[in-house]
Design goal:
Elements (H helix, E strand, L loop, with lengths): L4 H9 L6 E2 L7 H16 L5 E5 L7 H4 L6 H4 L27 H10 L8 E4 L4 E2 L13 H18 L3 E5 L1 H9 L5 E3 L7 H9 L5
Parallel strand pairs: 2-3, 2-5, 5-6
Antiparallel strand pairs: 1-4
Helix pairs in contact: 1-6, 5-8
Length: 208
Amino acid sequence: MPDLARFFELLDAVPVAPDAEALWDPGTPEGALRRANLRHYLHLVADADTALIAEAPGHRGATVTGVPFLSLRELNARPGPITGDPEGDGFALPAGPAPAWEASSAVVWAALARWGRPLPVSWPVAPHHPFRAGDRSTNRTPRPAEVREGLPVTLELLAAFRIRRVVAVGRKAEAALAAAGVTAVPVRHPAQGGAARFTAGLLRLAPG
């Protein structure tokens, strides 16, 4: 398992805008659950040599589960999409009503089902959930400052996992990584009609 102490230290230090939500704050019950799920996820993909770096968490995916590109539908899947265990992947379930699925999550995990092993590790370059003011059940584009402030967390994750290949999911993630001196293979983001191009682009990089 990679040493993630510095990763979480940097994550906790990222400033939170008034119209953004810190998802992995251990000081709240929801944040503690998401943080536990994130730790569990990073343990499950500890052998990753490829990273999928996207822009920001969506309100139907990581904002609910704590795991990038994983909505409740994938969290509850049998067998588990990460381990293949018929009993599931062992994540904690959030309490209360929540969006059951996210389109991007569905596309990503359908593609990863054809990827092989080891699975990539996924992470958003802007780690807080950006929303339109007053409505947490929305998404907005993170500001350049939010991306810059989140970059050290991403870079630490890449270093901790000793990632050999970085895949930028969408142009904004690609630009952010390039600004940090990271060369990434670009693929189309699966949202807004990009599912087929994302899948084709990702599977061209699959092992074997």
